[in-house]
Amino acid sequence: MLTLARAKCGERLRVLSICPDCPECVRLRELGFYDRAEVRKVSDGAAIICSLFGMRVAIGRDLGEHVRVERIAA
Q1: Domain interval for residue 27
Q2: Res 74: pLDDT
Q3: CATH number of the domain enclosing 34
Q4: Is 51 contained in some domain?
Q5: pTM of the prediction?
Q6: Which of 9, 39, 43, 45 could bridge to 49 as Cys pair (CB 3.0-4.6 Å)?
Q7: Is residue 61 part of a domain?
Q8: 57 forms bridges with which residues in the sheet?
Q9: 17 pairs with which residues across the strands?
């Protein structure tokens, strides 16, 4: 299972699912992370920086583990 936290920088990704059980994931949905959304992982450090709908969003690595993704062919 590939998660946003484990994906490589520069990859184009599609969100498959977000953990439905944890209250922290509500914030992810508010930021625009939802099923079938396309995201590009820009930076990987203490925080994960992603490009989502033309804006850059930073989330913690722990939240990145709750986002299941798949790679999109370039």
Answers
A1: 12-71
A2: 66
A3: 2.30.30.90
A4: yes
A5: 0.88
A6: 43
A7: yes
A8: 50
A9: 68
In the prediction, which pLDDT does 19 show?
86
Helix (H/G/I), strand (E/B), else coil: 26 = helix
- Average pLDDT estimate for 20-46: 89
In a domain, 1, yes or no: no
Tell me whether residue 6 is in a domain: no
Phi and psi, residue 14, nearest 5°: -125, 130
Structure tokens at 5: 């936290």
Q: How many domains does the chain have?
A: 1
Number of CB atoms found within 10 A of residue 59's CB: 21
What gap in Å lies between CA 23 and CA 1, rounded to an integer? 22
Residue 15: what pLDDT? Answer: 96
CB-CB contact of 59 with 73 (8 Å): no
